[in-house]
Amino acid sequence: MNIEKIILTEITNKKSLRVADIVKITGFSRAYINRFFKKLAEEGKIILIGKASKSSYIKATKESIRRKKNNILEIKMTLMNQNLSEDLILEQIKRESGIFLDIPNNISKIVDYAFTEMLNNAIEHSQSNNIEILIERDEDKIRFDVIDKGIGIFKNIIQKRKLKNNLEAIQELTKGKQTTAPKLHSGEGIFFTSKLGDTLIIQSSNNKLLYNNIVEDVFVYNIKKVIGTRVTFIVSLNSRKKIDSIFREYSSNLYDFTKTEVNVKLYKMAAEYISRSQAKRLTSGLEKFKKIVLDFDKVETVGQGFADEVFRVWQNKYPTIKIEIKNANKNIDFMIARVKGNR
């Protein structure tokens, strides 16, 4: 019995074929039949499309591969976090699905960047044994999730930056250029990813950080505790954003990421912004930027020590950096003007 001939005949007639189909026809074991499928695949005559229970073999022609891929618009994977390479995972997704088929070039570049950056963050920083990924496409958007069960992004920042709570960690994160491993990364990944899509959601511990580019704002929510970190990215297939334009907008002429207009949200905590130590934590790392926007929305007042440290001591140390004040009330304006008068 010529098993290879049977496989090729059946795959031509049925368009797609599973190992179980040939097992049923021949009566041989699955392990035995699988050897023939593997041999034909290695010879480039057939190709496996899809994952796990949804996978099947098709004849290896451009037309058949494309037709089969068009029906596979969702990929789920659980990866062991050992020697992972985010670019190879992305190549595998493109090879095994139709998620990237015929999408606009600007969207392809955006998803390439965002997916590899967020997966790399999980690989390098999460300390998780396994990483789950889900990427899917529907009629109007592409979405992906990267999920780990590790230390959690906010806790990691708290430990590395010696902060007090999640909200302080979120402030560090929304500065745009922070990283918990400065020798490995420049910290640009989350910042640029937050600018490229329609939505970027980061959930960890008891907080959810939402970058909503539809309304051009950032939100923080209390949520049921999440172990590790879950990152969700969504971009419309009709988005006109271009990755090169975003890079240029938030970079100097040398493209060294030395300018940003991202707001530093002074989220209202249990205590007001009173002390110099709070100010020092707030300004840590901001010397890397040319322009800083401090958003005092929902902050009722600031203390003399806090204002003096930011607007006199720190500003005198970095006189070329512009600090822009946003949403400050009269009390805050008064305190800032007072310390500036002592410069």
Automatic annotation (TrEMBL):
Histidine kinase/HSP90-like ATPase domain residues: 109-207
Annotated SUPFAM superfamilies: ATPase domain of HSP90 chaperone/DNA topoisomerase II/histidine kinase (SSF55874)
Domain of life: Bacteria
InterPro entries found in the cross-reference section: DUF4325, HATPase_C_sf, HATPase_dom, WH-like_DNA-bd_sf
Domain DUF4325: 278-332
Pfam families the record matches: DUF4325, HATPase_c_2
Listed name of the protein: Histidine kinase
